[in-house]
Design brief:
334 residues, alpha/beta, Rossmann fold, elongated, binds alpha-L-arabinofuranose, TAT_signal
Length: 334
């Protein structure tokens, strides 16, 4: 992704964008002032949807953190549709919120609406996912994970999984991709491929790869089709736990043992993923932390106050092998 690759470590000043954002604006109810007259920061947040356990945890984190911070949160769920997100953002612009935050369902197609926000001096903070834009000034910062690195980590942890399983010879890999055009789908695939190309050009091969749209139902359906066309798959790399869990159902329905006949690496680290891993059905999980709410609220406040923030605020995450699952499960927060 353009913006992630060109990650700017330099901090960017946002005073210009926020100075006017703090000026009096009309909200839907006709009251003026940033906060609708009660002094609270008004944050318009457009969520991707409710496609996965990760997303539910992310939504809860944002809502709880906004409450904790005393913000007036305007929240909308786009049901994984870009047009819904664009309408929500337009509505936040009309309402004159102080700051707009959103987790873009796909990377492209945002310039027009972001320009509208900029014209109204409303700063935009990206959370979780990035966008591709020709004008970097259209958003202030991204609070979220390094998905390319998650893909690389998945590749590296697969080496350990194969070694532990005593797998020798060529490795036939099935990949369940996230939503087509979404940053985590593009970047996780890219990072994983980097490891393949660099270290396993001769022995690893992706034999099938298709989107499961980050959902359990999608994972199950696509994995069932994979098994029809490629019954001898050795490994499944699923871009999230939910698709991995759906795939496990398809693998079992086909009379195979997930985690043994087909080795499975997923991304996220939600509780259900850890449960499947503690049952021996997932071999390793690359964590992607959804608890972005507190960091987001901190950034929103800084942006509103015209303070300087980093261009990309990254999230700390870990990797887990199957033998760590039982011990880690009780302390999983999501
Ligand atoms: O953008 C983060 C991804 O979106 C998560 O990995 C996935 O579960 C979610 O739907």
């Amino acid at each position: 992704m353009l913006n992630r690759r060109n990650f700017l470590t330099a901090a960017v000043g946002v005073a210009a964008a926020t100075g006017l954002a703090a000026c009096a604006k009309k909200d839907e109810g006709g009251s003026t002032g940033s906060g609708g007259g009660d002094g609270k920061i008004v944050l318009g947040f457009s969520q991707v949807g409710s496609e996965s356990g990760w997303r539910s945890a992310n939504t809860d984190s944002v809502k709880e953190a906004a409450k904790e911070a005393g913000y007036n949160l305007k929240f909308s769920d786009a049901q994984q549709k870009q047009e819904n997100q664009i309408s929500a953002i337009r509505s936040y612009i009309t309402q004159g919120v102080d700051v707009i935050a959103f987790s873009p369902v796909v990377v492209t197609g945002w310039d027009a609406v972001l320009k509208e926000a900029k014209a109204k001096k409303i700063p935009v903070v990206l959370t979780d996912r990035s966008v591709e834009t020709s004008d970097e000034s259209l958003y202030v910062t991204l609070v979220g994970s390094d998905f390319t690195d998650e893909g690389r980590r998945a590749g590296k942890i697969l080496e350990k999984v194969l070694e532990k399983a005593g797998h020798k010879g060529p490795v036939k890999i099935a990949q369940l991709e996230g939503t087509t055009g979404a940053a985590p789908a593009i970047e996780r695939a890219k990072g994983f491929k980097e490891v393949m190309d660099a270290d396993h050009a001769d022995d690893w091969k992706i034999v099938v790869s298709q989107t499961g749209d980050f959902t359990r139902a999608g994972g199950k359906q696509v994995m069932a089709a994979f098994l029809q066309s490629n019954p001898d798959i050795d490994v499944l790399f699923a871009h999230n736990d939910d698709m991995g869990i759906g795939a496990i159902q398809a693998i079992e329905a086909a009379g195979k043992k997930p985690g043994k006949d087909i080795l499975i690496v997923t991304v996220d680290g939600v509780k259900d993923g850890f449960i499947a891993m503690s049952e021996g059905k997932i071999n390793a999980i690359v964590e992607c932390n959804p608890l972005l709410g507190p960091q987001l609220m901190e950034v929103v406040k800084k942006v509103k106050n015209g303070e300087t923030v980093e261009r990309w605020i990254k999230t700390k995450e870990g990797d887990f092998m199957q033998d760590q699952a039982k011990a880690a499960l009780p302390s999983r927060k999501y």
